[in-house]
């Protein structure tokens, strides 16, 4: 069995982030969890089990990590992950692989919009350097644990890409 808990993954574990354009309801989240657990229990590269875990945050974000120190994923295993996520998305009628590019917080709600829509929100001042964004560019579990994933826009690529000012060099 290759499934572990997200908390047990090492800080340097590789990370993939996926999100839906809307939060899943509780029954959809249960279907997603069951399907991911089933997939991860059998996830392998070159017929060897991969040590992997996932976390579902806000019923909208899938954080999928793999301990590459034990065995790195192969191209085929990554393809199977993507295919599985597409199938789960089809079952739930939600896009998990190609959801809108920019998720951010609007109060307590998570909103997902295209880059163009986010640029318009930035130009109007609706979003700014203090807006909490979800940085899909992070690649290690430590990035989530250290707060780089869910962070003010000033601390991510969003500040530079959307001219939000107050950017901190990454």
Key attributes of the depicted protein:
9 strands; alpha+beta; 22% strand; 32% helix; 2 domains; three-stranded antiparallel β-sheet; 170 residues; two-stranded antiparallel ribbon
In short:
With 170 residues, the chain is α+β, with helices and mostly antiparallel strands. Helix content is 32%, strand content 22%. A hairpin with a 2-residue loop joins strand 6 and strand 7.
What does this structure look like?
The protein is 32% helix and 22% strand. With 170 residues, the chain is α+β, with helices and mostly antiparallel strands. The chain has two domains: 6-92; 102-161, no CATH class. Strand 2 (44-45) and strand 3 (48-49) form a beta hairpin. The mean pLDDT is 92.
Oligomeric description of these chains? single chain
In whole angstroms, the N-to-C terminal distance is 37 Å
Strand segment tally: 9
The portion of residues forming beta strands comes to 15-25%
| Overall geometric form | globular
How many individual domains? 2
- SS summary, helix count: 5
- With strands numbered from the N-terminus, the spatial order across the biggest sheet is 1-5-4
Question: Which helices and strands, and how do they pair?
Answer:
Blueprint: E1 14-19, H1 26-42, E2 44-45, E3 48-49, E4 52-57, E5 61-66, H2 75-92, E6 102-106, E7 109-113, H3 115-124, E8 132-134, H4 141-145, E9 150-152, H5 157-161
Antiparallel strand pairs: 1-5, 2-3, 4-5, 6-7, 8-9
Helix pairs in contact: 1-2
């Amino acid at each position: 069995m290759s499934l572990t808990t997200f908390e047990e993954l090492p800080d340097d574990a590789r990370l993939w982030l996926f999100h839906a354009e809307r939060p899943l309801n509780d029954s959809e989240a249960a279907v997603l969890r069951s399907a991911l657990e089933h997939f991860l229990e059998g996830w392998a590269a070159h017929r060897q089990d991969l040590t992997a875990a996932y976390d579902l945050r806000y019923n909208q974000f899938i954080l999928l990590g793999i301990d590459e120190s034990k065995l790195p994923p192969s191209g085929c295993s990554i393809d199977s992950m993507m295919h599985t996520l597409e199938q789960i998305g089809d079952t739930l009628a939600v896009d998990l692989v190609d959801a809108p590019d920019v998720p951010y917080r609007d109060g307590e709600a998570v909103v997902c919009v295209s880059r163009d829509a986010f640029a318009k929100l930035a130009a109007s001042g609706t979003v700014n350097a203090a807006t909490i964004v979800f940085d899909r560019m992070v690649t290690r579990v430590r990035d989530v644990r250290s707060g780089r994933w869910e962070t003010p826009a000033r601390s991510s690529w969003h500040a530079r890409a959307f001219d939000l000012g107050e950017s901190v060099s990454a």
